[in-house]
Amino acid sequence: MKLTFSFLTALIGRIVASPLQRLSVISSRQLEACPPNGNLPPDYLSPTLMVPVSRNLPNVAFGSTREPKMTPNDFCTIFNLVIPPSAMGATCTLEFLFPSFGQTLSPYFYNGGGHFTFTGYAFGTGATEQTTYNNQPPAGPSPPTPPSVLSPGNAYTVNVGPCGVQAPNSLEVSGMLCSDDTTFEYLQTKGDELGCPIGFFVGIS
After folding, report:
1. Domain total of the chain
2. What pTM does this model have?
3. Which stretch is the leader sequence (predicted)?
């Protein structure tokens, strides 16, 4: 499936160019026309840091971004999430929410076969703004059966398991999203600020 930038991108260009503010999520609110299971739970976590890395420029640090970038056999993006002490004994569900253009105002570009890989890093480690492709966090467990295809109009469960946090400490978890056949760039939203949320989120239950 080949998609191009939505004409809606132009309409919100001025919004994206300015700092976006976190909007509170109301637990009883259901966003209309989102993909099945594509709404955020009352308690959810967003990435705390997203860092692009490049196979073709393996020693270049690109710093933090709010617009993750994946290109065929080159750019990947590392995502950090911090699990709070309050999640001790709970279950964490890592999801990728991917609404279609008609379901979100968040701009994105998607072109290719939609095949992706998700590689996990060791618990308690994560990327920094100085991370490069040649200087990634230590290897760790990866999701056993992550979705191999991500396409618009769907919500994907990447992994489900114990949160693994031990109070009173928080736990940083991290992973890298890559593709060998798809260019995908998007604006990771914070909650429902631009309609249906898009990107990685962790639900705690």
Report:
1. 1
2. 0.82
3. 1-17
Q: Is residue 50 part of a domain?
A: yes
Place of tokens 């990947």: 76
Q: What is the DSSP string of 81-116?
A: EEE-GGGTT-EEEEEEEE--GGGB-S-EEEEE--BE
Phi and psi angles of residue 11, each rounded to the nearest 5 degrees, phi first: -70, -30
Q: Identify whether 101 is part of a domain.
A: yes
Domain that holds residue 144: 2-8+30-204
Q: Which of 86, 81, 99 is nearest to 201 (CA)?
A: 81
Share of the chain above pLDDT 90, in %: 70
For the segment 62-98, what is each residue's pLDDT rounded down to a tens digit? 999 999 999 999 999 999 999 999 999 999 999 999 9
d(CA 174, CA 168): 20
